[in-house]
C-alpha cells in the first residue's frame, strides 16, 4: 500500500543530535554507523492529543536494544523525551503524528566494521511526521491483503528479533515480494514453517482450537519476531475484558481457516485482513472480535499516554 505525500510535512524540522534542520537539508555523515552498516536501533511512536502512547515502553525497548548491541553511550529516558518534546514543539505538532526515533552507534573515525572506530558517541535522530495509521484506506473496503513470503524470519541464534535494529533488508525483501503479488504486506514464516509476523506488523487470528473447535483469538509466539508493544497492549486488553487469547504456534492452515485476522503495530494500529494468498478470511468483513478490540484500543489511546506537548 503506497502512501501519498502529506503536504503538511513539506517543511518538517528534523532533530539530529539536538539540532533542528529542515528536511531538505538534514543529513548524517557518510561515516555514521547507520550508513556504514545499518548499525542502529529505532522505535515508532504515535502522538494522540499531546500524549505519546506507551512512551516509556518504547524508550525502554530502544535502550535495551542499544545495550544488546553494546553501545557505549545510551541517552537516558529524560534526555530522549526532551529531544522528542523539542521536535514536536518546533513543528507545532499535537495530534495525528508518527515519530520515528533512531539511535545509531555514531560516527566512525574511518570506514570499517569495528565498533572501536566509534569514538564520538551515538547519533540521535527524531523524525516526526503528520501521518495517519498507514492502513486506514483498507479498513472500510475489503481489508488488507497478505501474501506469504519466501523470506523467513530469523531465530535468536541467527539474529535475535528482540533487538529492534535498523537492519530491515529482510523485511524489505519480503515487502518486494508482496508488491510483486499485488498484496498490501507479506506474511512471514519462521524457519520451522510457522507464522512469525508480517514484514511490518504482528498478526492475530480468530480460529478454532482443537479438539473442541471453539473459536478463540490467537497470536504467534515471539520466537522469531519482536515482542511488540501494540501486540502486548492487545493481550492486556484481552485479559482486562475477558476475551480469551492464546499464544501458540500458528501454521498457514490455521490462517486460511481463520474466521478473523488482524495486524497490530504502532504505524497501523489494528487493521483487519480480508485475504491471505488470495484466500478469503471468514466472510471478508471486519469480525466482531476485531471490531471490539479496535474500539477498546482507541478508547485506551484517547485517555492514556505521557503528555509531551500542551
Question: In summary, what is this structure?
Answer:
Helices cover 26% and strands 27% of the residues. It is an alpha+beta fold. A hairpin with a 2-residue loop joins strand 3 (40-48) and strand 4.
Describe the protein.
There is one protein chain. This protein has 8 helices and 16 strands. By secondary structure, it is an alpha+beta fold. It has 2 domains: 124 residues, D-amino Acid Aminotransferase, Chain A, domain 1 (2-Layer Sandwich), CATH 3.30.470.10; 168 residues, D-amino Acid Aminotransferase, Chain A, domain 2, CATH 3.20.10.10. The strands form 2 sheets. Strands 7, 8, 9, 10, 11, 12, 13, 14 and 15 form a 9-stranded mixed β-sheet that branches. A 7-stranded antiparallel β-sheet has the order 2-1-6-5-3-4-16. It is globular and about 60 Å long.
**CATH-wise, what's the superfamily of the largest domain?**
D-amino Acid Aminotransferase, subunit A, domain 2
Number of domains: 2
C-alpha Rg (nearest Å)? 20 Å
Compute the average pLDDT.
Answer: 95
Helix and strand sequence: EEHEEHHEEHEHEEEEHEHEEEHE
The total strand number stands at 16
End-to-end span in angstroms?
33 Å
Specify the overall morphology.
globular
Main sheet: strands, sense, barrel: 9 strands, mixed
Q: What is the structural class? A: alpha+beta
Helix content: 25-40%
Low-confidence stretches: none
Q: Name the beta content range.
A: 25-35%
Please give the CATH class of the largest domain: Alpha Beta
CATH level 3 topology of the largest domain:
D-amino Acid Aminotransferase, Chain A, domain 2
Number of helices: 8
CATH architecture of the largest domain: Alpha-Beta Barrel
Amino acid at each position: 500500500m503506497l502512501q501519498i505525500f502529506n503536504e503538511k510535512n513539506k517543511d518538517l524540522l528534523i532533530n539530529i543530535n539536538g539540532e533542528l534542520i529542515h528536511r531538505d537539508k538534514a543529513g548524517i555523515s557518510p561515516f555514521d554507523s547507520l550508513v556504514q552498516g545499518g548499525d542502529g536501533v529505532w522505535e515508532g511512536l504515535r502522538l494522540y492529543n499531546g500524549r505519546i502512547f506507551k512512551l516509556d515502553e518504547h524508550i525502554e525497548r530502544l535502550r535495551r536494544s542499544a545495550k544488546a548491541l553494546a553501545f557505549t553511550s545510551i541517552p537516558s529516558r529524560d534526555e530522549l523525551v526532551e529531544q522528542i518534546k523539542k521536535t514536536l514543539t518546533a513543528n507545532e505538532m499535537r495530534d495525528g503524528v508518527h515519530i520515528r526515533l533512531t539511535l545509531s552507534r555514531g560516527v566512525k573515525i574511518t570506514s570499517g566494521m569495528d565498533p572501536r572506530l566509534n569514538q564520538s558517541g551515538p547519533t540521535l535522530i527524531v523524525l516526526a511526521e503528520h501521518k495517519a495509521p498507514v492502513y486506514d484506506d483498507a479498513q472500510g473496503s475489503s481489508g488488507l491483503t497478505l501474501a506469504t513470503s519466501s523470506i523467513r524470519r530469523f531465530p535468536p541464534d541467527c539474529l535475535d528479533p528482540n533487538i529492534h535494529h535498523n537492519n530491515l533488508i529482510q523485511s524489505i525483501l519480503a515487502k518486494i515480494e508482496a508488491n510483486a503479488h499485488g498484496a498490501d504486506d507479506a506474511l512471514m514464516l519462521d524457519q520451522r514453517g510457522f507464522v512469525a509476523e508480517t514484514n511490518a506488523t504482528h498478526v492475530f487470528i480468530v480460529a478454532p482450537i482443537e479438539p473442541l473447535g471453539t473459536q478463540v483469538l490467537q497470536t504467534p509466539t515471539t520466537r522469531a519476531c519482536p515482542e511488540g508493544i501494540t501486540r502486548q497492549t492487545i493481550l492486556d486488553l484481552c485479559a482486562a475484558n475477558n476475551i480469551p487469547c492464546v499464544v501458540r504456534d500458528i501454521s498457514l492452515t490455521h490462517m486460511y481457516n481463520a474466521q478473523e485476522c488482524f495486524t497490530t503495530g504502532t504505524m497501523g494500529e489494528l487493521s483487519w485482513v480480508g485475504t491471505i494468498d488470495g484466500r478469503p478470511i471468514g466472510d471478508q468483513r471486519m469480525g466482531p472480535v476485531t471490531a471490539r478490540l479496535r474500539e477498546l484500543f482507541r478508547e485506551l489511546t484517547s485517555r492514556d499516554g505521557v503528555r509531551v506537548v500542551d
